Amino acid sequence: GPDLKVISTLSVGFDHLALDEIKKRGIRVGYTPDVLTDATAELSVALLLSACRRLPEAAEQVKSGGWTTWKPLWMCGYGLSDSTVGIIGLGRIGQAVARRLKPFGVRKFLYTGSGPKPETAAEFGAEFVPLTRLAEESDFVVVTCALTPATHGMCNKDFFGRMKKTSVFVNTSRGAVVNQEDLYDALANGQIAAAGLDVTTPEPLPTDHPLLSLQNCVILPHIGSATYATRSTMAVLAANNLLAGLRGEPMPHELKL
Amino acid sequence: MWYHKPVVNEELLQSLPNLKVVASSGVGIDHLDLKLLSSYGVKVASTPFVVSTDTADLGMALMLASSRRLVEGHQMAVAPDTEYFPADWLGVEVSGATLGIVGMGAIGYKVAERAKAFEMKILYHNRNQRKKEEESAVGAVYCKKIDDLLQQSDFVLLAVNLTPQTRKLIGKRELELMKPTATLINISRGLVVDQDALVEALQNKIIKAAALDVTYPEPLPRDHPLLKLKNVIITPHIGSATKKTRWVMMEEMAESIEAGLAGLPIPREVL
């Protein structure tokens, strides 16, 4: 559409936008950062807990009658107490995740990204490490980075191979940050204990996708920001971004191209 | 003993004349008749503190899973007939909501510590008020009357132990005092709740939802209405279910037994 002036996206991610082309045509872009931080961070922690304590699996055992007698090691998961949590991408959402995980008895926070953020990291005593070390030392890995050419397929065979057998991997960023075949192999072969994914490639996964068959993989339908309050706020913000763009005025949240 | 079996009654005690110590897993001792055991000269020990963290974690997990519809969402994501994810499929945020903790013991307090990081407003009801420093560390407000807590909370979490005083603590009256948008989370004991009243309250939308790690009995009979309600998550009493904790519980029980048999003071003795 040659008359297109404004694109207003209901997200903080903009990996789905061809920014070069957009910039060339002088089109303005509005997006919705900040307002979805809490809901998404909360969902990341919810997913982490559901995966490490095997919630959907356990709930299913109750319904299906698989719960017969009780045994001490039945349905045991992994606790957060004394654990090391590795955050890939200590941005707004990553920080909000760390804040929520702190009182669960996490002993150490590690993080990685394009560069260290000492002021931000100080709140959690988080240490900036290379991706490889984060994989090796973390009991819980949470991916909250943006999808860029640098992060595309970043969580791959090498990454999962370095992780602990008892570790849990959580992705609430974008499906394409993860090499899904490698993740499947790691889960199926016991290289990592469990995974929680709010995002996949594609969404939804095709019905015969191997990840869907794994008991130790909790998959959610991309609901990071899916609450009544947050989506309403996002919608209003997106509308205001759009209107401001059409009027040639400053947007509440414009993406700098 | 693990998970309140075998049943310790007169018959069992008479058949075990040399019994000196009963070491029970977990912190709950509602399944033990302490007077009876004492009359046979049998000492009792439990594993009270090691279970606190994992149980508090599970309480949070249930609250989050319920509010953000995790179990439902997972089922949708893996279902063969799901073609797309509807844009208007929404949950409710836990962050910033009001949590009412009934029973602010070791476990209840740890839940409060976790909830604070989600910027929740925390109310609590307890036999006794906690110290000011403890309250302010988590921003918890004491509700001397449970009614006040029930009326203001978006999430009501039960972390009391089961005693004659707390049996059916939450019944029809209490459920009706709760908000119609509220969720009941139970990590204590099934009998703390009037289960039939709960079923009715959920069916008639008196409260919004429930998330239960404990029921009565466990497991529930296959045709129980709680198993069919869409707005209920039930987990099979996994509050302390991490390998690490279960191993420590085992070690603690063995330690208590050894001390008892040696005639030494028993660690974690229940008096």
Automatic annotation (TrEMBL), chain A:
CDD domains: GDH. One of its GO terms (molecular function) is hydroxypyruvate reductase (NADH) activity. Residues 45-224 form the D-isomer specific 2-hydroxyacid dehydrogenase NAD-binding domain. Keywords: Oxidoreductase. GO terms for cellular component: cytosol. The keyword Oxidoreductase applies. Residues 2-255 form the D-isomer specific 2-hydroxyacid dehydrogenase catalytic domain. Belongs to the D-isomer specific 2-hydroxyacid dehydrogenase family. This is Glyoxylate reductase/hydroxypyruvate reductase. The gene is Grhpr_0.
UniProtKB/TrEMBL annotation, chain B:
Keywords: Oxidoreductase. The keyword Nucleus does not apply. SUPFAM superfamilies: Formate/glycerate dehydrogenase catalytic domain-like, NAD(P)-binding Rossmann-fold domains. It comes from the Eukaryota. GO terms for molecular function: glyoxylate reductase (NADPH) activity; hydroxypyruvate reductase [NAD(P)H] activity; NAD binding. Residues 2-270 form the D-isomer specific 2-hydroxyacid dehydrogenase catalytic domain. One of its GO terms (cellular component) is cytosol. This is Glyoxylate reductase/hydroxypyruvate reductase. The gene is Grhpr_3.
